[in-house]
Amino acid sequence: MSYIFGIAAALIILVMVIALLRKNSLRERHAIWWLVAGLLALVAGIFPQTLDWLASLVGVAIPLNLVFFASIAILFFVNLQHSSELTKLEEKTRKLAERLAILEIQEPKE
C-alpha cells in the first residue's frame, strides 16, 4: 500500500510540474530538478528493489537514508540555482538603477 502512495505522489509531482510548464508559470531550467525528483520517486515507487540495490552499491546501510540524501542534494541544487539567478537579477537591477539615475541627472529641469 505504501508503494501505491509513493507512486501516486510521484505522478502528482510530475503532472503538476508539466502543468506549470504548459501555463508558463515555471521555466524549463527550474523544472528540470523537480522532474528529476519526480522521476526518481516514480522509479523508486514502481521498483522499490532498486533502492536496495543502489544503497548496497553506494555503501549505504539503510536505503531510506539514500532517499533522504538524494532529496537534500536535489534541494541543494535548486537552492544553488535560485541563488545564482538572484545574484544576476540583483546586478541587473543595480545597473538599471544607475542608468536611471544618470538619465535623471542629465534631464533638464523645467
Write structural notes for this entry.
- There is one protein chain.
- This protein has 110 residues and is an all-alpha fold.
- It has one domain (2-106).
- The chain has helices at 2-22, 28-46, 49-58, 63-106.
- The longest helix is centred in the last third of the chain and has 44 residues, at 63-106.
- It is elongated and about 75 Å long.
Brief characterization of the structure:
The chain has 110 residues and is mainly alpha-helical.
In the residues, how many domains can be counted?
1
pLDDT < 50 stretches: none
The total strand number stands at 0
Termini gap: 75 Å
**Percent of sequence in beta strands:** under 5%
* Helix residue percentage: over 70%
Give the CA-based shape.
Answer: elongated
* Count of DSSP-assigned helices: 4
Q: C-alpha Rg, in Å? A: 22 Å
In N-to-C order, the SSE pattern is: HHHH
Main sheet overview: none
Q: What is the mean predicted local confidence, pLDDT?
A: 90
Chart the SSEs and their pairings:
Elements (H helix, E strand, L loop, with lengths): L1 H21 L5 H19 L2 H10 L4 H44 L4
Which structural traits does this protein have?
110 residues; mainly alpha; 0% strand
